Amino acid sequence: MYTPPPLPRRTLLRGALGLGTATALAACGRDSTTARTSGDVDLALWTHDPGYEAFFRKGIPEADRLADFRYHLTVTRAGPADIVTKLLAQAVAGRGTPDMAGFEIGSFPRMLRGDISERLLHDFTPDIAAVPGLKNDLLPARTAPYSKDGRVYALDSDTPMVVYYYRDDLFTKYGLAKDTPTWEEFAELGARVHKDHNASLCVVSTNGSDTAQIVQSFQMLLYQRGGAFFDADQQLVLDSAEAEEVLGFLCKGLRSGFVIDISDYYGAAMQTALKQGRVIGLPMAIWYKSYGLVPNVPEQKGKWRVRAMPRFAEGGGTTAALGGTGFGVIKDKANTRAATDFLLNTWLTHEGQVRRFIETGYLPTRRSVFEDPQLRGLKDDFCGGQRLFGLYRDLLPDVPPQHTSPDQSILFDVLAGNLLRAYRGDVSPRQALRRTAEEFRDQAGR
Amino acid sequence: MTTAIAGPAGSTRERAHANRTAPRLKQSRAPYLFIAPFYVLYVLFMLVPVLVSLWLSLTEWVGLGTPHWVGLRNYRLLATDVSFHRALGNTGVFVMIAVFVVVPLALLIAQALNTRGLRVRDLWRTAYFVPIVVSPIIVALIFGLIFDRQFGLLNSVLRALFGTGGVDWLGDPDLAKVSIGLVMLWRWTGYLTVFFLAGLQAVPKELYEAAALDGAGRIRTFTTVTLPALKPVTAFVVVTSFIGAAQIFEEPYLLTGGGPAESTLSVTMFIYRAAFQRQQFGYAAAAAVVLFVLVFGLSQLFNRLFGIGRATS
């Protein structure tokens, strides 16, 4: 009988090397797409905010109770823009995508380009429809930014309405009325305060390295006045009478000192202005208390208050919307169902939305949760014990939708430059808006 | 026929020949095997990306799915894109600053540091070199504070010295370019100084002695001895500065984001913006190809002008 000769050591080593390489390559292959329907699930979450990580981790027991899964969470943190960039890169590579991702509202429009969202993101529309009453309970203003062709691709973290923050102690000291009804009257007070006390009541950002910040200052008042950047069909509607009025108002305010230009809402310039009492009030989103005021001027705890913004005499609402983060689920993955259930059972339940406001300060996205008695009784220590939730509930009907477009970043780039030109007086508000619209149309077609 | 010579004697010769050529063949393969990793990596990480970019520049692609072939459309659009023209113009200004301000200043500083009797020379060298090792993000943060219009250090100094401040260093389109130029100057001068210093120390002392005997003054010695002797170093520094400045990204990206009103937008930022903010990968690739062609062509021109790589007679 033939006995094969023993394999030489070199051949054995080669074989082992080949086998190891094949195994390693197989491990690097595409993610398995056999859908998990129950049992242990390790969900990969990408987010830019540690607050969200904490929220979801605490939500695991509740999610376990409501679904057939036992969840484990692996969280990766990255900058808002990096999340989209890396997600797309991993999707091209065909592996390494997360199961859930948080899209900051300014970065999400990139997902709307071409058919990226349809290819990559789970459509929540059927899930929302499957829960009785949920569709009508969800605020359309907060599903609009993450929707395309009537499909919802992410669930928002907040109803980030814009309010007016002010220093209660300095308003009293300077004899300023705290309930001035219109912006126009308020601007007159502001000019006087600036002249007498070198303080300003409104802020615009001129941060050259952050076009979104420059645009935000204008966006808040524009949306409050009833204007918008894009309509529901993603068409540019910026070049409007409302926009011209708001930009004119800000430019005039800069000349009178009612408005001050600050290079960064969140950095050293704003901190200095706040500490020196140069800025004693500003319109900003509700999350600015946690991200702008508390970190910059913790020693001013108890001195700040929140009120609704003054109205524009010519019309518009009492609030606007600014910011937000939509959580989406990556489609066609083994964990897609599990991640969807997790999000619905933590982010979208009544209890989840109450907990979200208490733990993170982000307002509910379901209309019914605004009636929750627990939330209405909460006091805010930084704002001198104010019960803020009642104010937010009253402002809710005025929160405008934020329609976006894949070309939003183009608009922000050209608008930021023209806003700065108008602030400096190089062009009139009318010219700035016209130029913006022209430059946008020129570039958006590419 | 070849078989006719395959006799017993021939066989012996052949075997002997074969015995000699086998190790020779092995030996002749060895150098290629040793240099193969470089070429494999070069092909994988240089040639393939360049060729893919070239192909991508002829397509429209959002970053996912299949790119659509559009031929030369991206190049036609670039030709009429005002933003791209601005980016080219701004990059040209940064290149001018690098070549005509940073390089001469580095040469002067090197000359000063090379002076006999200079005290704490190593401290000066370190002080000039340190900016290059500082992270660009830190640089941007610090200069952002320095250039701030209302609360910045530079305006505070101006206010204290001349009673006037409030200069909008980063908000004024022209001044923003100057501010980026100042950061480039601060960051790169010391680095280039090191090259000039090394060149200066290699100039034979006899040349200076001869110049002194001829009664040449400092300026004449500098122009007739130092500068010609430094020609190879200068050529290297100019070409590398040109290539570096043509690809400038960090300073404007971190300090001004390309603003205000695209006044500091560089070509590399334009490429980044198109690819990673607007999902226009084909368009970005076309801009990258244009940048490559420009930088490559001008570098070749500089090489010929300075005679880099040619033996000096």
TrEMBL record, chain A:
It comes from the Bacteria. SUPFAM superfamilies: Periplasmic binding protein-like II. Keywords: Signal. Residues 1-26 form the signal peptide. Pfam families: SBP_bac_8. Coiled coil: none annotated. PANTHER family: ARABINOSE-BINDING PROTEIN-RELATED (PTHR43649), DIACETYLCHITOBIOSE BINDING PROTEIN DASA (PTHR43649:SF12). This is ABC-type glycerol-3-phosphate transport system substrate-binding protein. It comes from Streptomyces umbrinus.
TrEMBL record, chain B:
InterPro entries: ABC_transporter_permease, MetI-like, MetI-like_sf. It is a multi-pass membrane protein. Residues 88-302 form the ABC transmembrane type-1 domain. It is found in: Cell membrane. Its main location: membrane. Gene3D superfamilies: MetI-like. Residues 1-22 are annotated as: Disordered. Keywords: Cell membrane, Membrane, Sugar transport, Transmembrane, Transmembrane helix, Transport. The chain crosses the membrane at residues 32-56, 93-114, 126-147, 178-200, 281-302. Belongs to the binding-protein-dependent transport system permease family. This is Multiple sugar transport system permease protein. It comes from Streptomyces umbrinus.
